[in-house]
Specification:
Length: about 350
């Protein structure tokens, strides 16, 4: 989940050069679709080979976002995942294939993060008051009682469409992986219509492929991770044109200050408490938007010291930003240093 990436479209979101005339052939125009979905906004910018298909694509995108919302959104009680959460038993229950797959993808990341990242932290999130934006410093007894409700090992994938709890009141929150999954699904719709050059962005999570009509790379603005203001810090230029996702997670937008101490909304499932390291944001570059989304949260949870080691071992291109006193310090993983996909361009101080 993220609010730190923005696609630069015209004066607001992707900077596109003017039309070029090559051999008297007009450069293809960009098609844009945008709207509201899943409690946030989405923006699609792409080169459409058959302009007449725009309405069909728009209808498919709307229908797919609504379908995903009904399947995996935790804010609506009638979603498939919330109906499963409401089951107070340890029986096998049918969900659907995509939920089971998302759970298993998240399980891979959870294990790799040594349990820091976990889909079952929902009770802890509520205990600390982040659900209602009302800070609550829990006592140790309450914390330990809620810790009993947390753990991916308490969730069993029975088969391709069924999940089972080992404790009755286990609950799953797919928000840390669901937006990346949505990006993937919308990109699939575009590609089904032979769209090879696009940006798909949902709530700041995005995937790009190809290049702009003039042959220049897509350029994505990255916000400086500051808690009380929004400034653009750098540009990510996707030079290769290969399909690639960029996902970020940060601690600087959603937090509580209490008695001089800051409590992040990123919870370490191993302790049940907000993380206390100096990392303020992580950007992950990966082909698969779904896994990139989960890894951005996991690496943020771990912090740079532990996270960089794991990212290097797993071959994950990630860029950490740590707060060191008054300074923001960037620390790339080795795969990020060595990848050719993105060229980082600094933005002059604003």
């Amino acid at each position: 989940m993220s609010t730190s990436i923005s696609a630069i479209m015209n004066s607001a979101t992707v900077v596109f050069a003017g039309a070029l005339l090559v051999s008297c052939v007009k450069t293809p125009e960009l098609t844009k679709l945008e709207g509201f979905a899943q409690g946030t906004t989405y923006h699609l910018t792409f080169v459409l080979p058959k302009p007449a298909e725009k309405d069909a694509i728009a209808a498919e995108v709307t229908a797919e976002l609504q379908r995903i919302d009904k399947s995996i959104s935790n804010y609506r009680k009638d979603s498939t995942i919330e109906l499963f959460n409401a089951q107070q038993d340890t029986e096998s229950h049918e969900v659907n294939e995509e939920i089971v797959k998302l759970v298993e993808q998240a399980r891979i990341v959870s294990k790799a993060s040594n349990g820091c990242y976990d889909l079952t932290v929902k009770p802890l999130f509520e205990l600390w008051g982040f659900k209602k934006d009302s800070f609550n410093l829990p006592d140790e007894t309450s914390l330990q009682e809620n810790m009993k409700l947390v753990g991916m090992e308490k969730l069993i994938a029975v088969d391709a469409t069924h999940l089972q709890k080992t404790i009755q009141n286990l609950r799953i929150d797919l928000s840390s992986i669901g937006q990346g999954y949505s990006v993937s699904r919308i990109a699939d719709i575009l590609e089904k219509h032979d769209v090879k050059n696009y940006i798909v962005e949902i709530g700041g999570e995005l995937k790009t492929r190809g290049k702009k009509p003039d042959g220049k790379p897509w350029r994505i603005a990255i916000e400086k991770p500051l808690p009380n203001e929004r400034k653009l810090e750098k540009i990510a230029a996707f030079n290769s044109g290969e399909p690639m996702s960029l996902m970020t997670s940060g601690t600087y937008r959603h937090y509580f200050d209490n008695n001089g101490k800051r409590y992040s909304h990123i919870l370490d499932a191993r302790t049940g408490k907000p993380v206390e390291h100096n990392t303020v944001s992580v950007a992950v570059l990966m082909n698969d938007p779904t896994m990139a989304d989960a890894w951005s949260t996991a690496l943020l949870c771990l912090g740079s010291e532990e996270g960089i080691r794991i990212a290097n071992e797993k071959g994950i291109a990630a860029l950490y930003v740590d707060q060191q006193g008054e300074q923001l310090v960037e620390i790339p993983t080795l795969p990020m240093q060595n990848q050719p996909t993105i060229k980082w361009e600094a933005i002059q101080a604003q």
